[in-house]
Amino acid sequence: MDRDRLRAFLADPGKTWRWNRGEAEGYHAVELRSDSLRWFFWSHDIAEGVGGATNEHTQTVAEFLAGGPPVEVPPHVVQAVRAHLEG
């Protein structure tokens, strides 16, 4: 167990936005922690051993504010993330 990583995780509860495009096997999400964003798809398919975060992309908040997300994201999610960061 990486205790330093766990402490950092607990010290910054972050914020997560989730959305689904009709998939039954998981959902898309973006997680904000400190000054970085992590975009990913969360798979519920743990029976096949492939569950958890897949298709992960990370970027700094500055990169997001300057150029938007690194993946296709519904406009309402982009607006919500921007409003949170700028508010």
What's the β-strand tally?
A: 4
Q: Tell the overall outline.
A: globular
Query: Uncertain regions: pLDDT < 50 for 5+ in a row?
Result: none
Radius of gyration: 14 Å
Structure annotation, total helices: 3
User: Structural class, from secondary structure content?
Assistant: alpha+beta
Largest sheet: 4 strands, antiparallel
Order of helices and strands: HEEEEHH
Characterise the protein shown here.
This protein is an alpha+beta fold and 87 residues long. Helix content is 32%, strand content 34%. The chain is built from 3 helices and 4 strands. The protein has helices spanning 3-11, 61-67, 75-86, and strands at residues 15-19, 26-33, 36-43, 52-60. A 4-stranded antiparallel beta sheet has the order 1-2-3-4. Strand 2 (26-33) and strand 3 (36-43) form a beta hairpin. It is globular, with a radius of gyration of 14 Å.
Summed up:
With 87 residues, this protein is α+β, with helices and mostly antiparallel strands. The chain has helices at 3-11, 61-67, 75-86, and strands at 15-19, 26-33, 36-43, 52-60.
